[in-house]
């Protein structure tokens, strides 16, 4: 199957009406353990005229071995980038959608702290649900884009930046909780992960409010 490379076609069109775009994409929504993360990648008119880095794709379409290098290239390609987080405890407390909104808000704040202005700025959010507007204290203009991580290069950049950051965190957490094999499953519902939960119980990084033991196996 031929994989079509993402482009900046939509971004160029939208930048006729806005000075900046902040592209957002999430990772970790369906995991049993660990935080959800939202990556942010900023695009301006000058950046939209630069060539998209070779091999940039939605993070799910890049091999694990190649993702760190691609994330580094993506960070160097955009004017600013960042990652926002919402912990497993927050997922338990407020639910997954509000937790995503919190993480997205923190991702936006991360690029604001790098000097990005929210005036005349559009937020592109991968998917079909705006989970950021309800929780962000600023007034944002948000546009959801279905398959944005596949089609829009700025969203692809946000996707791989977030994926590498979250995978790195899960491998760090694995050192203190090796029984769950997070270095392999990154907190998702592998057979080994679920079996370890049944035998050892939950760690502080599990989403305790979820029906974890009965979660479907993803790989």
From TrEMBL:
<dbReference type="InterPro" id="IPR001352">
    <property type="entry name" value="RNase_HII/HIII"/>
</dbReference>
<dbReference type="InterPro" id="IPR022898">
    <property type="entry name" value="RNase_HII"/>
</dbReference>
<keyword id="KW-0378">Hydrolase</keyword>
<dbReference type="InterPro" id="IPR024567">
    <property type="entry name" value="RNase_HII/HIII_dom"/>
</dbReference>
<dbReference type="Pfam" id="PF01351">
    <property type="entry name" value="RNase_HII"/>
</dbReference>
<feature type="binding site">
    <location>
        <position position="26"/>
    </location>
    <ligand>
        <name>a divalent metal cation</name>
    </ligand>
</feature>
<keyword id="KW-0255">Endonuclease</keyword>
<dbReference type="InterPro" id="IPR012337">
    <property type="entry name" value="RNaseH-like_sf"/>
</dbReference>
<keyword id="KW-0479">Metal-binding</keyword>
<feature type="binding site">
    <location>
        <position position="126"/>
    </location>
    <ligand>
        <name>a divalent metal cation</name>
    </ligand>
</feature>
<feature type="domain" description="RNase H type-2">
    <location>
        <begin position="19"/>
        <end position="219"/>
    </location>
</feature>
<dbReference type="InterPro" id="IPR036397">
    <property type="entry name" value="RNaseH_sf"/>
</dbReference>
<keyword id="KW-0464">Manganese</keyword>
<keyword id="KW-0540">Nuclease</keyword>
<feature type="binding site">
    <location>
        <position position="25"/>
    </location>
    <ligand>
        <name>a divalent metal cation</name>
    </ligand>
</feature>
<keyword id="KW-0963">Cytoplasm</keyword>
<comment type="function">
    <text>Endonuclease that specifically degrades the RNA of RNA-DNA hybrids.</text>
</comment>
<protein>
    <recommendedName>
        <fullName>Ribonuclease</fullName>
        <ecNumber>3.1.26.4</ecNumber>
    </recommendedName>
</protein>
<comment type="similarity">
    <text>Belongs to the RNase HII family.</text>
</comment>
<dbReference type="GO" id="GO:0004523">
    <property type="term" value="F:RNA-DNA hybrid ribonuclease activity"/>
</dbReference>
